Amino acid sequence: MYNSVKIIIGLIIFVGLMAYPIWSSIGKPGPAPELVLTEKAKQAKVCIEATPWMKESHMQLLDNWRNKVVREKNRLYTNAQGQAYNMSLTNTCLDCHSNKDTFCDRCHNYTSVRPYCWDCHNVPKGKSDERRP
């Protein structure tokens, strides 16, 4: 019983060291997924807008496209550089980003997002559409 203080201090230090990986990473995100670009996307080197903007705002862009195409029958999108694109997920976006598993799904799964694109659009040929609950 004379060593109880030393034992308690030793247990506290032991528990602190064993729990270090847990409490040191609280609030920190894991590493971002690495996206695999198709050869066509690598050759183009640019998307319809700047890459940082596309990573952050592509869903708003697609929602805006849907509304303009369906409600206003406008199929032409002009980007910030003045280039015109057809407003089409299937024919514009998936033309370069055709591998859903290694491009779309990696970020969406990482962020626990379940986009509803594939509720209406066909999944790119040969690709799975695994839904998360």
Give the CA-CA distance, first to last residue.
Answer: 54 Å
**Oligomerization category of the chains in this entry:** single chain
Class by alpha and beta content? mainly alpha
Coarse shape: elongated
Poorly predicted spans: none
Portion in beta strands = under 5%
* Largest sheet: spatial strand order: 1-2
Strand count: 2
Helix content: 40-55%
Rg from alpha-carbon coordinates: 24 Å
Main β-sheet description:
2 strands, antiparallel
Give the helix tally.
6
Mean pLDDT: 86
Helix and strand pattern: HHHEEHHH
Describe the structure.
By secondary structure, the chain is mostly helical. It has a domain at 30-120. The protein is built from six helices and two strands. It has helices spanning 4-24, 39-44, 51-72, 89-96, 104-110, 117-120; strands at residues 76-78, 84-86. Strands 1-2 form a two-stranded antiparallel sheet. The relative contact order is 0.12.
Topology:
Elements: H1 4-24, H2 39-44, H3 51-72, E1 76-78, E2 84-86, H4 89-96, H5 104-110, H6 117-120
Antiparallel strand pairs: 1-2
